[in-house]
Amino acid sequence: MDTMRDRLAPVVSRLLDEDPRVAVVLAEIGKDAFTEAYRRHPDRVVNVGIREQLLVGAAAGMALTGLRPVVHTFASFLVERPFEQVKLDLGHQDVGAVLVSAAASFDWPAGGYTHMAPGDVALLDTLDGWTVHVPGHPDEAETLLRHAVAAGDDKVYVRLSVQANREALAVDGAHFRTVREGRRGVVVAVGPMLDAVLTAVAGLDVTVLYATTVRPFDAAGLRRATAAAGTDVVLVEPYLAGTSTGAAGDALTDLPHRVLGLGVGRRELRRYGRVEEHVAAHGLDAGSLRERIDGFVGGGVVAGRA
User: Fold this and answer.
1) Where is the Transketolase-like pyrimidine-binding domain (predicted)?
2) pLDDT per residue over 101-129, tens digit each?
3) Which residues contact residue 238 at a Cβ distance below 8 angstroms, ignoring those fewer than 6 apart?
4) How far apart are CA 63 and CA 59, in angstroms?
């Protein structure tokens, strides 16, 4: 199976052909995939070199002229390094862009901590007006990329990852999707966490919601699920643990509830290792998730199932 990032250049290159507003801004990373697009649209495919602050600043300038810039590099270089430009050049000037990241929390362990960004969504959450998509499959990434570019002049972040679920689901760029129903709690699986969550909750009497758009947070969808399953909520996110616990709490503010946030821990793992080893170290493998989810919702095994 190809990766989410493999879909980026083909999808955006087609959008460049279809829509004269679309532009692409790069900082060396990923430039080879856009060679043909640059040949066809040299005025709308720009590589600023290894200058991530300029990457965002140039995109904001393009947006001020009426273009719809798609901006791409690794998450740590797209959100963390140029955060002042994201805050001011886009946010303060009230212009939009589509930020598309790669490498996610720890997709390239050999790159070291400079290439890891488990705090990217939490950081963007300090700003107003951002839509955040976290696809869990390359097909979903393609759908959400198109949603993002078509979203007027909004500020949109699309978080791509090499981690992916085995199968794609239909996503609409807004709502959580109910994957299974239960009566003893709700587990929200974000993006590529779905397969591990479904394995972890096998036999448990819980509802599973699938989230590929986490901002705005689908408060109404969570409330509908808790009406039948109760207000014990577990969030399983592929980035910093607890990023969405506040949003879930706000959704249930008038109801007694408990929320458990599972995700990437704050402790830096200083051995490169493999992606799978980082997943296990942060307790995001199916076995660890089973223990933590079961312990929180208090069991509730479905009759006839282990």
Assistant:
1) 2-167
2) 999 999 999 999 999 999 999 999 999 99
3) 104, 105, 134, 161, 163, 190, 191, 192, 193, 263, 264, 284
4) 6
Determine, yes or no, domain membership for 303. Answer: no
Residues 69 and 191 both lie in one domain? no
- Does the pLDDT value for residue 1 go beyond 80? no
8 A C-beta contact, residue 212 and residue 159: no
Range of the domain at 195: 177-297
pLDDT at 68 over 60: yes
Burial class (CB in 10 A: 0-12, 13-18, 19+), 268: exposed
**Domain CATH for 190:** 3.40.50.920
Per DSSP, the three-state class of 235 is strand
- Is residue 168 situated within a structural domain? no
Give yes or no: residues 181 and 283 share one domain.
yes
pTM: 0.96
Q: Is residue 228 part of a domain?
A: yes
With 0-12 / 13-18 / 19 or more C-beta atoms within 10 angstroms meaning exposed / middle / buried, residue 254 is exposed
Per-residue pLDDT band for 298 (boundaries 50, 70, 90) equals confident
Structure token digits, residue 205: 């009497």
Span 14-26, average pLDDT: 97
Among 131-135, 146-150, 210-214, 302-306, the range scoring the smallest mean pLDDT is 302-306
Residues 6+ away with beta carbon under 8 Å from 280? 288
Same domain, yes or no: 186 and 80: no
CA angle 248, 155, 43 (to 5 degrees): 155
Q: How many domains does the chain have?
A: 2
